[in-house]
Request: fold
Amino acid sequence: MNTEDLSLEDVDLFFGKKQILRGICLRVRPGEICGLLGPSGCGKTTLVRIAAGILRASRGRAVVLGESMPKLLAMARIGYMAQGDALYPALSAEENLQFFGSVYGLRGKALRARIAELAETVNLSEDMKKPVHLYSGGMKRRLSLIAALLHKPSVLILDEPTVGIDPLLRRGIWAHLRGVAQEGAVILVTTHVMDEAEQCNRIAMLRDGALLALGTRDEILSAAGAVGLEEAFVRFSGGAPEEGAV
Reply:
């Protein structure tokens, strides 16, 4: 195993007697964006929380950068963006990022330059002095993305990062993520949007806590005998697509 990979090895998770994840095996390599695609409640968020070291698997393990998670040494090299925005509403956006940057040892001119660069990327440059409680939901998502990217992590784990963000800006964010991957980062991202999944190098389809399919878009469509990802998802789920389904 490459010590720069993110690997989920036969991961099960139980909450009491209820099984949430079922034997998930997945490896994401440097330079790759892997998308976890599935409906709400299928286990995507639970799985990325295990990968990030926030939850511990009931069976199996998550190995990130050669370390079994949770491991503080590895977590310092991970950028994690949760579905809920972990921001301080009374502080300005800039003050939030200064705090998060200091956690990773970033200070002074280097931190200010990094904040300015990422604020430009997500179109927040004019709003950095505003307190976060005045931000819209989409603005908070963009600010949370900056916080995850600040320290140039080796592994980036993003849970529904573009919810509430307009399509044009979303396109720019995905272009930036592709650039981060090309620089050698491992990126694991959850989505329930088919066109976003197509931005990924590989797609892992989840349903009811189980992995239905894993591969490139073309590999998945070929295996399913489908013309689109939604049709493929339905076929792997054991159903037939409804006429007119989108």
Q: What stands out?
A: The chain has nine helices and ten strands. Residues 240-246 have pLDDT under 50 and may be disordered.
